[in-house]
Amino acid sequence: QVQLVESGGGLEQAGGSLRLSCAASGRTFSSYTMGWFRQAPGKEREFVAAINWSGVSTYYADSVQGRFTISRDNAKNTVYLHMNRLKPEDTAVYYCAAQYGMGPHYDYWGQGTQVTVSS
Prior knowledge:
By secondary structure, the protein is an all-beta fold. Helix content is 0%, strand content 50%. The protein contains no helices and eleven strands. The chain has strands at 4-7, 10-13, 18-24, 33-39, 46-51, 58-60, 68-73, 78-83, 92-99, 108-109, 113-118. The strands form two sheets. Strands 2, 4, 5, 6, 9, 10 and 11 form a seven-stranded mixed sheet that branches.
């Protein structure tokens, strides 16, 4: 069982930056693929970014490619989402997730953190 706790959300102006953190419990954090997802009001949850267990491989949605960076620190059991050049359409609840594999299904989810970008 893995517990995930997100932090770092808030209100930011368009063009600004935020860094989200996701702290994981358990001793096998380095075994997990970690992902970030988001859900805007009235929309379905969508994939944002993912990183493999070692941090060597990363994946991004087209909408955030070049603006967001996912990273991880296995010594701290933490994954990060660095968000730059924020846009109002980035406004959403952001969720951290974990899985053992590299597929579309994630086994564990955090409670989410709100990100609001004002124009």
